Amino acid sequence: MVSYAACLARLAGEAPDRPAVTDDDRSLTRRELEDLADRTARAFAASGVSAGDRVTIALRNTAGFLAAAIGCWKLGATPAPVSWRLPRRELDALVELTDPKIVLGCEPGTYPGRTCLPHGWEPPPAAAGAASADTAPLADAVSDPWKAMTSGGSTGRPKLILATTPGLIDQDGPPALGMTRGGCTMVPGPLYHNGPFQWAAMSLLAGRHVVLLGRFDAAAMIRRIAEHRADMVYLVPTMMLRVWRLSEAERLAHDLSSLQVVWHMGAPCPAWLKRAWIDWLGPERIWELYAGTEGQATTLIRGDEWLAHQGSVGRAV
Hints:
CATH architecture of the largest domain: 3-Layer(aba) Sandwich
Structural class: alpha/beta
Strand order of the largest sheet: 3-2-12-11-13-14-15-16-17
Order of helices and strands: EHEEHEHEHEEHEEEEHEHEHHEHEEHE
C-alpha cells in the first residue's frame, strides 16, 4: 500500500506527458498537475497546514480544485469540499464545523484567524534558482481520513461526513469502480458532491484522464465525451433527462462508441428514462449504484440485470 500522493507522483514519473485533467479552460498533463499540486502543498504548508488538518475547498470544477485536494494529500491533510455557491450563513456554519486551516474560495479576511484564498488563486511558479528546500521532495504522508464531505441531502444544521479509510492504495490491485487503467472519465457533476469527487479521485489514482464540466450542459457533455474518447461517465438522473431532451440530431451528432460504462446514482431514475438509455447505448453499459455518502452499504445493478428485475437496485456489495 502507498499513499495517494506517492501513487500520483509515480504515475507522473512514468508517463509525464499523458493528460491528467481537462477543465473548461485548460488541460494539464500528469507532470503539470503534479507540479501544480506540489506547489499548492508547499503554499498550504507555509500557511500552517500539516498532517491531520483540514482544508475547505469552495471552488468551481477546475484543475485547481483537484490540485488543491492532491496538495492536501501530500501533507497528510484532509480536503473538505463545499459548494462555491453556498450562502454566507451556510458557509459560516461549515467552516465552524470543519475548523479548517485554509478556506480556498473566499476573499482574504473573510474568516479571521484562518488563511482565506480567493477563487482563481494558484501558487506562484517556483523561482529560478530557488533554494533546495523549496524544491526538495516533500516527505511522504497519508491523509486520514482522505476526504471530508458534506451531506448532499440533509436538512437542518450542516453535517460533515468523514471517510472511514485513509489515503492509501494498492497500486497492484484492480482500479476502483470498474475502471480500466489509463482511460478517460467524464465528470460533469460538481466536485463538492461526494460522487463526482470520488469518481475524479479514483480516476486520477488509476492513471486516467479526468474531464470536468464547469457547469452541466447536455450537448457539451456529449461533444466532450467524443472529443476525449471517454470510456466512463458519472451521471445523476436529472442529467440523463436533460440529455434525453436534446433533439435526436443533437444527441446522435457525436461518436460515443468509446463509452463503455455509464454510472448513474444520486436519486431514483424513472423506469422509462433508464430503459431509454439502455435502448440507446446497450444494457451492458448502464450501471446503477445505490448508496449514501456515509457508505453504510452499496448496491449495484447492470442494465441487463435490471431488465430482468425492473425496479431493483441490485445486490449489496
